Amino acid sequence: MADGAGMMKMFDPGRVKERMRANLKNVGVCEESCFHVTESVLQTSLRGIDSHGIGLFPHYHRVVLTGRIARHPTFSLERTGLSTAMLDAQSAFGHHAGWEAMKHAVSIARETGIGAVSVKNSTHFGAASYFAFQAAEQDHLGMAFTNANSAVMAHNATRPMFGTNPICLAAPMLNEGPFCLDMATSAIAKNKMLNHQRTNAPLEPGWCMDADGRPTVDHRAACYLGASGGYKGYGLGMMVDIFCGMLSGCGIGHEVVPMYADLSAKRNVSHFFMSIDIARFQDVTAFKARLKAFADAIRAMPSVDPAVPVMIPGDPEKQAFIRRSAEGIPVDEPKYKEFLAVDPGFAEALR
Question: CA 190, CA 207: separation in Å to the nearest integer?
Answer without folding.
Answer: 10
